Amino acid sequence: MDVLECLGLNLDLPVERVAQMAEEVGITFCFAPKFHPGLRHASPTRRELGVPTAFNVLAPLINPARPPHQLVGVAPSKMTRVVAGVLARRGGTALVVRGDDGMDKLTTTTTSQIWVVRDGQVGRRVQLDPRDLGIPQATQSDLRGGNARENATTVRRVLDGERGPVRDIVLLNAAAAIVAMNPTEECLSQDLTEALAHCAEAVNSGAAANVLARWIAAATTTSAPR
């Protein structure tokens, strides 16, 4: 959230405006305390703790938009199957992922585990090696961020076309979000490879940067233009 604010996004918007931006721009951000007022009391404590809490696992499950297709990252290994099971009961499709380095996303430093959710079922666990997709193995230091302002600068550099380990992991997870719309265990690697190409083109063409610019512009207004 702090990174998005440093990029110039106003996240404390009325609920109606949040929904409008999803339609206008194709992207939006659901600021939890706006939709779940009780979380206002937990937010200061979470920031003071500075470590992951149960809310990190719960957040994707209490998304007010209830998206039918989701990419969900889960850091605690014991919770991956639990989250996948919840999403399966809701219907829709999802990829639940965890990096074997402990990241709550697909990682590029080592292998990752993926659970495919579709047709009300949780499929078998699939192991993904990013090198099988042509992505070089990174190190933890390659991906380590800084403060919010530094990370916002990194975001803009990636969207401006800067290549390297950060771009690689961003494209990999963006590709997984696309595949989550219609995931299959048998074709997962092939589908990710194709989606990676689409994501790279979105960045290289400037389309991704354009979406961010339109999102920032839309977030400066409190209601839809008449």
Automatic annotation (TrEMBL):
GO function terms (MF aspect): anthranilate phosphoribosyltransferase activity
InterPro entries noted in UniProt: Anthranilate_Pribosyl_Tfrase, Glycosyl_Trfase_fam3, Nuc_phospho_transferase
Keywords, comma-separated and alphabetical: Amino-acid biosynthesis, Aromatic amino acid biosynthesis, Glycosyltransferase, Transferase, Tryptophan biosynthesis
GO biological process assignments: L-tryptophan biosynthetic process
Protein name: Anthranilate phosphoribosyltransferase
Gene3D superfamilies xrefs: Nucleoside phosphorylase/phosphoribosyltransferase catalytic domain (3.40.1030.10)
One GO cellular component term: cytosol
Annotated signal peptide: none
Residue ranges of every copy of the Glycosyl transferase family domain listed in the record: 1-208
Pfam family membership, one: Glycos_transf_3
